[in-house]
Amino acid sequence: MKKCWLALLLAAVSALAAADTWRFAAIGDVPYSERERTELPKMLDTIAGGKPAFIAHVGDFKGGTERCDDALFEQRFRLFDDSPVPFVFVPGDNEWTDCQRVTAGAFDPAERLDKLRSLFWAHRQTLGAKRFPLSRQSGDYPEHTRFRLGPVLVVTLNLPGGNNNWGPLPWPGAEHQARNDAVLKWVKTSFALARRRKLDGIVLLFQADPGFKHFSQGLGHRGYRQFLEALRDETLRFPGQVLAVHGDSHINRVDRPLRDRTGRVIANFTRLETFGYPLMGWSEVVIDDEAPQLFRIDNHPWK
Q1: H/E stretch holding 281
Q2: DSSP labels for 245-264?
Q3: What is d(CA 83, CA 99) in angstroms, rounded to the nearest whole number?
Q4: Which of 113, 172, 270, 276 could be a cystine partner for 29, CB 3.0 to 4.6 Å?
């Protein structure tokens, strides 16, 4: 009997050791204040100490009224590029669409986006002291990338807050229309790739809170309606699990807000919203292909 129990214990330990897991960390809407600018490098070092596969910043690396100067952009680039582990960044509205505000310097948003591209997506790889290659969407949107992490496809999108730069008119502006078409194409081709390769999951990284609740009520914001329709339809066709990671609302939460056309919750979809000013912290996403839920999320407030 004793040998039997020992054999079972050894089998359990062996099974645990054989289980594969992958991890990454997500942050966003930081730094906004002087305190956060001081604390963020310390928090990034702490995150890197856990040796995640990468750190993702889902946009808004400055406050909305802070000037969109080259010097600030370059400082944030150096901070992210100094990360000991690979670093992935997607743009938020504070970095480009809202730079037209007088308090932010009255910049041309398109010019500021080009500046971001020249810094953060100049090469087909992540930022950081250790880097890995990225697949990039062809054309004018180098910020749209994707890569494999174990059984999961990770996809980045330029989907900023502030109604996705729709513009002030009842119809979409030219910039929104062109970029939104590219976003929709990248979403659909990424899901098709994941299905073709029989992957277990997809992670989407973008900045905006697209208004899941309003969308489920038929009241979705114009700037995100097409994206949410594509996300809903592709998720329903995808046999694996989908995780959307975004910021924008500054409400750290994990839930299932996406619904089908009848109003039922889509069970294979999870939303993670990162911490945001005035609360600092990070979310650790653990991918375990042997667990009932592919994604496990642990939130870590920064005290």
Answers
A1: strand 281-288
A2: EE-SS---EEE---B-TTS-
A3: 26
A4: 276
Strands (DSSP E) contained in 21-160 are 21-27, 55-57, 87-89, 135-136, 145-149, 152-156
Residue 300: helix, strand or coil by DSSP?
A: strand
Find residue 282's DSSP bridge partners.
Answer: 300
Predicted local distance difference test score (pLDDT) of residue 154: 98
What pLDDT does 20 receive? 86
Beta carbons of 29 and 278 less than 8 angstroms apart? no
Residues 6+ apart with CB under 8 A from 221: 163, 164, 166, 210, 211, 214
Q: Is there a contact between 231 and 187 (Cβ–Cβ < 8 Å)?
A: yes
Structure confidence at residue 16 (pLDDT) = 33
Non-local CB neighbours of 60 within 8 Å, separated by 6+ positions: 28, 29, 30, 32, 92, 93, 94, 95, 161, 207, 247, 248, 276
Q: Is the pTM above the cut of 0.85? A: yes
pLDDT tens per residue across span 119-143: 999 999 999 999 999 999 999 999 9
Tell me: cis bond preceding 91? Omega within 30 of 0 counts.
no
Q: Burial level of 131, CB count in 10 A (0-12/13-18/19+)?
A: middle
Identify the pLDDT of residue 8. 32
3-state secondary structure at position 12: helix
Phi, psi of 150 (to 5 degrees): 60, -125
* Residue 267 C-beta-side C-alpha neighbours within 13 Å: 3
The token pair at 1 is 């009997």
Counting as low any pLDDT under 50, the low residues of the chain are 1-19
